[in-house]
Amino acid sequence: MRSFIPIARPVIGDEEVNAVGDVLRSGMLTQGEVVKSFEDAFSEYIGVRNSVAVSNGTIALDLALKALGFKPGEEVISPAFTFIATSNSVLYQGLRPVFADVDERTFNIDPDDLASKITPKTKAVIGVHLYGQPFDLKAVQQICEDHNLMMIEDCAQAHGARYDGKMVGSFGIGCFSFYPTKNMTTGEGGMITTNDDVLAERLRLLRNHGDTGKYNHIAVGYNYRMTNIQGAIGLAQIKNLDGFNARRIKNAAYLSSNIKRIGITNPYREKNVTHVYNQYVVRVEESLGASRERLMSYLLDLGVGSAIHYPKPVYKQPIYKEMGFDNDPCPVAEEVSAKVMSLPVHPSLGSDDLRYIADAVNSFEA
């Protein structure tokens, strides 16, 4: 019997296992030199002066906004179609999230709609490189410069993605997640990247109780540290990240060439980017004889995992509706969320797996 093909699977080998063993045997488990080595390796990979390791990707967004020191009630614009952590990090600061619509092909933030949402209270924009495809960094960066706004890149799904040949996370303030479903993992963990040395020092201060050393606390800080165990896994993973991404890109190319079922639209990729396919996301058009829910059930019966990333715009989530954020709808985000579906694309897939996935989709009858 054929084994189940999961929607995601982290790639963990002997190098990661041995690195963790070394840390455990050392007895130095909390943040230390191993984390510092991981930060240095990550900075070199992204092409920035500073990387600040934290305990997870949501904390990366949270700490970046904390360090910028905005005042309660000020506004931060983020896409309506993303994981909820992006806008939750805005709420954590007492700031007001404002939702911009997304591009109907890339599903990334729409620069035109973003520009229309700017008010005198707007202080920053969080763009999300959704599913591994960079958002329109040139356009968004120009808008931020024109309006004196900070630009934060949510890179949680885009480790190693490039825009015009330059790594994401090096344009603004980059925030990465190392959750197990990401392109590289540390189990949990996150990273903030910046070329601003002053900001980096502020981030390091706040992640460790506002302590300058020797129990000298000069700010109200937090315990947002990464452990040496996570850092050891990260050091092993980053060496293989380009290889992981190359397999994702190859797998996506195969699926795009071989999924030909009417009513299924394969992912769109901009020409000037390197899309690293954290997710392979198709659109299921019910008007053309397909049904997302029936297709997912059909694939499950055949042993193929799938998922919906994400089933509704953030402002349609119950807690956001309760807070009154659903009064300014984003029509493209609502349409997209009703149609998208993710198929397996992770590096562990073999050629037989890919063929089986494509054949399964193509054989679906509504």
Briefly characterize the structure.
The chain has helices at 14-26, 33-46, 57-68, 85-92, 111-116, 137-146, 197-207, 228-258, 292-301, 318-322, 331-337, 351-362; strands at 50-54, 75-79, 96-100, 122-128, 150-154, 162-163, 166-167, 173-177, 190-194, 264-265, 273-274, 280-284, 340-343.
What does this structure look like?
- It is a single chain.
- The protein is α/β, with parallel strands linked by helices.
- The protein has helices at residues 14-26, 33-46, 57-68, 85-92, 111-116, 137-146, 197-207, 228-258, 292-301, 318-322, 331-337, 351-362, and strands at residues 50-54, 75-79, 96-100, 122-128, 150-154, 162-163, 166-167, 173-177, 190-194, 264-265, 273-274, 280-284, 340-343.
- The chain has 2 domains: 14-237, 3-Layer(aba) Sandwich (Aspartate Aminotransferase, domain 2), CATH 3.40.640; 242-362, Aspartate Aminotransferase, domain 1.
CATH superfamily of the largest domain: Type I PLP-dependent aspartate aminotransferase-like (Major domain)
Provide a count of the helices: 12
Structural domain count: 2
Mean residue pLDDT: 97
Ends: how far apart? 25 Å
Beta-strand residue percentage = 5-15%
| CATH fold node name of the largest domain | Aspartate Aminotransferase, domain 2
Structural class: alpha/beta
| Residues in helix, % | 25-40%
The CATH architecture category of the largest domain equals: 3-Layer(aba) Sandwich
Radius of gyration: 21 Å
SSE arrangement, N to C: HHEHEHEHEHEEEEEHHEEEHHHEH
The main sheet comes to: 7 strands, mixed
- Quick one: how many beta strands? 13
The outline comes out as: globular
| Uncertain spans | none
CATH class of the largest domain: Alpha Beta
